[in-house]
Amino acid sequence: MRYAVITVDGELTQHDGELDWPAVIGVERKARVPLRLGIAASGWVNSVGLLYPAKYPRNVIGSCVLIALGARVQPYAGPVVLTGWNPRSLPEICSLPKPVDFLDTVHGDVVKALAGQTPRELSPSWAEQMREIADHVRTAPTPGFTVRTVKLP
Predict the structure, then answer these.
(1) Cα torsion at 114, 116, 122, 127 (round to 10°)?
(2) What's the predicted TM-score (pTM) here?
(3) Are 140 and 75 within 8 A, CB to CB?
(4) 3-state secondary structure labels for all residues of 15-26
(5) How far apart are CA 139 and CA 141, in angstroms?
(6) Tens digit of pLDDT for each residue in 23-67?
(7) Beta strands in the chain (DSSP E)
């Protein structure tokens, strides 16, 4: 299976072979990050990564790539994995389509934008928006949860 990983340092690597989820994402469950319709890919992150910042630092470049591909605007922590996704049959993980040029292009655009450049023929406002998203990823509060007791009659 072909898949890609964006490390917390922002490095994009592409792989062919079996994906060892616990070794790449962490031993906790993986969480699917839906991307925009028309992209035969899906993002994956650690389901509890944001709750353990020492173990799973926020992935600024990975978050920006996911968001550029249509994911919800929020911080994503730990390594980001991208796989193929087939929603038509039973939704299932599959190999990324070859070639994966779109991923190299978007990753490169994000890296350039965060370095203060305007990538390709994209507008300066796109680059500025990526920088604002990166700031949000770095500074957004860690989500919390509340446990409430319920009295039964």
Answers:
(1) 50
(2) 0.88
(3) yes
(4) EECCCCHHHHCC
(5) 6
(6) 999 999 899 999 987 788 999 999 888 888 889 999 999 999 999
(7) 2-6, 12-16, 30-33, 41-46, 80-86, 92-94
Give me the residues paired with residue 81 across strands.
Answer: 5, 44
State how far the alpha carbon of 29 is from the alpha carbons of 32, 90, 127, in Å: 10, 20, 33
How far apart (Å, rounded) are the C-alpha atoms in residues 129 and 105? 17
Spell out, as residue ranges, where the chain has pLDDT lower than 70: 89-91, 99, 143-147
**Of 94, 52, 102, 97, residue with least CA distance to 77:** 52
The pLDDT score that the predictor gives to residue 147 is: 66
pLDDT score recorded for residue 39: 81
The whole-angstrom distance between residue 7's C-alpha and the CA centroid of its chain comes to: 10
Direct distance between the N- and C-terminal alpha carbons of the chain, in angstroms, rounded to an integer: 53
How long, in residues, is the chain?
153
Sign of CA dihedral 103, 4, 15, 91: negative
Identity of residue 26: G
Query: Angle at the Cα of 113 (from 105 to 55), degrees rounded to 5?
Result: 85
* 103: amino acid identity, one letter: L
DSSP lists the bridge partners of residue 46 as 30
